[in-house]
Write a structure and sequence with these properties.
Blueprint (H helix, E strand, L loop, with lengths): L14 H7 L11 E5 L3 E7 L19 H16 L9 E12 L8 E12 L2 E10 L2 E13 L8
Antiparallel strand pairs: 1-2, 2-4, 3-6, 4-5, 5-6
């Protein structure tokens, strides 16, 4: 997990920097690269290959990336930027809600997802964002999501 702020604005981030900011690891790390970061927007990239573990069961002979994993990739893309912000370094982002999710086209092995996340607002430990995932410039998925920032010791249920 990220414990130190990185100077990421305006830079391309590889998977090593991504892993130093968010806690996700294989097979659940769904962002390969961050292409752009600004105050309110982040753009990530996910290369979708036939070697993804979810293709073994979704669907054999007709592999399609599960929509919920596309939304998770959007959330992880946003988390890279949000968890690098001064107030949220060292925290974990938990989903609070997903709304207005729309799946426009299937994502197949060989596709390259370009994920654009725009932050709508932050208030204390709550954030709201809007994400759009595209393949070849066409929207394949979009959603709005809310998340809470917690410290790792808060995650334990009482």
């Amino acid at each position: 997990m990220g414990n130190a702020e990185h100077d990421i604005k305006g830079k391309v981030l590889d998977v090593n920097v991504i892993q130093s900011i968010i806690p996700h690891r294989y097979p659940f790390l769904l962002v390969d690269k961050i292409l752009e970061v600004s105050e309110k927007r982040v753009v990530g990239l996910k290369n979708v290959t036939i070697n993804e573990p979810f293709f073994q069961g979704h669907f054999p002979g007709h592999p399609i990336m599960p929509g919920v994993l596309i939304i998770e990739a959007m959330a992880q893309t946003g988390a890279v930027a949000a968890l690098n912000m001064k107030d949220y370094i060292g925290k974990i982002a938990y989903f609070l809600g997903i709304k207005e999710a729309k799946f426009r086209k299937p994502v197949l092995p060989g596709d390259q997802l370009i994920i654009e996340v725009e932050f709508v607002k932050f208030k204390l430990s709550i954030g709201q964002a809007r994400g759009v995932a595209k393949v070849n410039g066409e929207v394949v998925c979009e959603a709005e999501f809310m998340f809470a920032f917690i410290t790792p010791d808060e995650k334990e249920r009482k």
